[in-house]
Amino acid sequence: MDVATNPSTFDKDFGYLMPFLDKVAAAAASLEDASAREELIRLMAEEKGRWARAQELLRGASGASVQGPQAPPEPRVDQTPSARAGLTVGSLRGVAPVKSRRR
To answer: Per residue in 4-16, pLDDT tens?
Structure first.
């Protein structure tokens, strides 16, 4: 078993990481902004869950089935004329530059 696949290789790192995440979550309690406090607590809980799962996987747990990458959504075609947005189509070569009125 090499270093990358030996779960005990990471035990020390997880030993530092998990208490650190707990410390950050505990510090969130002192934030004055309630929404920031709630978000930080939620983020740390989610992060701990992800790292705990990574640790399980390193120790030999079966992976969850993952679907292949999904095709990107079709680009939305706007049927309205682009002139409404002030856009032009075509080359701008031969068009004289507009002089700035600022000095």
So the answer is: 567 688 899 999 9
Cα distance between residue 40 and residue 27, in whole Å: 9
Distance CA 69, CA 54 (A): 21
User: Tokens standing for 71?
Assistant: 């095709």
Question: What's the token pair of residue 77?
Answer: 């075609």
- Single out the residue of 48, 47, 46, 26 nearest to residue 37, CA to CA: 26
Alpha-helical segments (H) within 1-103: 11-28, 34-58
Q: What percentage of the chain carries pLDDT values higher than 70? A: 57
- Euclidean distance between CA atoms 55 and 10, whole angstroms: 8
Rounded to 5 degrees, φ, ψ at 45 are -65, -45
pLDDT (tens digit per residue) in 83-100? 445 555 666 666 666 666
Length of the chain: 103
Q: What gap in Å lies between CA 36 and CA 38, rounded to an integer?
A: 5
